[in-house]
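Internal tracking record. Fields below are filled automatically when a chain is submitted to the structure queue. Please do not edit lines marked as system-generated. If the sequence contains nonstandard residues, flag them in the REMARKS field before resubmitting.
Queue: standard
Priority: normal
Entity type: single polypeptide chain
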Amino acid sequence: MKTLYLECGMGAAGDMLTAALLELTEDRQSFLKRINHLGLPGVKVGAETSVKCGITGTHMKVTVNGEEEESRDAHSHPHEHAHEHSHGQDHEHHSDDPAHGHHHHASPADVEELINGLNVSDQVKADAKAVYALIAEAESQVHGHPVSEIHFHEVGTLDAVTDVISVCLLMEEIGAEEVVVSPVHVGSGHVHCMHGILPVPAPATALILKDVPTYGGHIQGELCTPTGAALLKHFASRFGDRPIIRTKAIGYGMGKKDFEQANCVRAFLGESERQREQITKLECNLDDMTGEDIGFATEQLFQAGAKEVFTQAVGMKKNRPGILLTVLCLTEDADRLAEEMMKHTSTLGIRRQEMSRYVLQRSVETLSISYGEVRMKQASGMGVKRSKPEFEDVAALARKYQVPLRTIREKITEEANEPAGQKEDSHS
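SYSTEM-GENERATED OUTPUT FOLLOWS
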């Protein structure tokens, strides 16, 4: 499986992600030519060699009407947001300086209109709009305004739109089946802006990074920007440690500012033969519940989001027969499901074990047969490809036409590969 791993030990910004991904491509000039002919008015994008702590990488240079974006930070007002460029923000000055005339207050509708007018695929447009939706929702919550009233200043300008579109285009070109992102270093301390002092991470960034593993540290400054956070949140299949992959290419996306640690996003692209997901096993022994009560608890645990719930007969102390109740769930759901186990069983304690499992990639397709429509569960990967009809759909058709289950299953097998026009509709 084609796997992309993004190492965000110095946070993430839009241009740094662009540069890291660009280094993974075989023809960088082709991408630069494409981004410069998308229809972004006045925008010019270039890639420069940059060295940080002895490591050579790429830094993106974006100009609008010949002017390069000034580094600045103005988080304290809904019309003034920190721009991305490279962790080189100047936290002391700049607001709506007329000298920066190419920047404007753009509403979410303005940004969407700009994206819709670009010469890119529908998928790239959808990805870019989804990234901006994450930012707008966070800004809406921070400032107490409806999303429709949010106005982007820095993140709404042409250079920032260029960062977002660039990442979306490169993600499409790379075509990774899985994107794994490391825990995100957000920086520490405070940032100074026109209207006061704000903590790091900035409020909008903190909201976007909800449910994402993050950490601070001794490096003072804002390392992860709102747009960097939104891009990671949108594209990540999961967050965690670097997976086992056969690396084919490595990219370094450099920031402008220098720290004691190399200021870069590092990207690894390679092949992972098997997909594993992190799960948690919760289990407890029960010897004083009826079968009906255990069945009810099982139903509640499934409804609460358990991946799997099952029971096994066990022998307990004093030779009492008992039941071992096991729940498999995503690690982030474990605490909540442990509470559900306590709530619906008589146990006094729950054992917890972290583990991983191999999984096939799954999807659902709808198959039209002469009896009606049946959802087909598809699974593939690790040299395996399987297809299985959804039982409830098969059962519903069997009840409707008063035929055995096997009749519906045989029709599925018979008609699965027939062109739609050849199917007889003799049962409707």
